[in-house]
Amino acid sequence: MKLIANTLLSIMLVLASFAVYAETFREGVDYKMLSTPVEVENPGKIEVREFFWFGCPHCFALEATLSDWKQNLPEGVEFIATPAPLNSSWTPHAHAFYIAKALGKSEQIDAALFNKLHIEKQKIISQDQLAKFFTQFGVTEQEFNKLYNSFSVRVAVRKAEALAKAYRLTGVPAIIVNGKYIVEVRLAKTNERMLKIVNFLIEKEKLQEQSAS
User: Fold this and answer.
1) Is residue 45 part of a domain?
2) Which DSSP helix (H) or strand (E) runs through 18?
3) Is 105 helix (H, G, I), strand (E, B) or coil?
4) In a domain? residue 13
5) Number of domains present in the structure of the chain
């Protein structure tokens, strides 16, 4: 009896939080739903995956809001940042992202690259330009180029490209909730509203999980 009561209470709490957004955000108006969901990395959690490009001004503008949001990530939610090599000119930045990750310096290097591109207006696009940029973090150009062409980095970039195609992305930033829902600035209108829609979809997924259990 106690277990049933606790389960009902959990469902009621999720319903209450979901009701806050229920009349606010609509499929096809504020977000899109995939006809065929894409498999997530960890089925035990609700996956929130951001696709971005370092050279995208809208992605840069989203960073501060997204950073604050990630500080209070809801329980049971996993956030994954993913570079979106939607065309060949974006691919070097995808390599840079995974190189920084391999070095354990993602937070430092990602922020610096965004700032160089959008605050200082420096042109850092090619592999050679990125190799020089990485030297300020104690990485020689030779070490960078070795990592750039490494098997693990190439596989990670190919996976990111395949995911972007699976989600049929045509632009960034885009946030995918649990492999099912696509939230874009184009529909959301503002960065703050974009994350409110993400929160709404997280609650929607929690409700569905509660109903199924």
Assistant:
1) yes
2) helix 2-21
3) coil
4) no
5) 1
The predicted-structure confidence for 134-150, as pLDDT tens digits, reads as follows: 999 999 999 999 999 99
CB neighbours of residue 177 within 10 Å: 24
Q: List the CATH number of the domain containing 60.
A: 3.40.30.10
User: Token match 């939080």: residue?
Assistant: 17
Whether 59 maps to a domain, the answer reads yes
For the record, the structure tokens of 126 come out as 């090619």
Which residue range(s) make up the domain with 201? 31-212
Token pair for 136:
């300020």
pLDDT digits (tens, 9 = 90+) for 3-50: 444 444 454 554 554 454 454 899 999 999 999 999 999 999 999 999
At position 156, the amino acid (one-letter code) is: A
User: Is 117 among the domain residues?
Assistant: yes
Q: What pairing do the DSSP bridges indicate for beta strands 46-52 and 77-83?
A: parallel
Question: How far apart, in whole angstroms, are the C-alpha atoms of residue 36 and residue 26?
Answer: 19
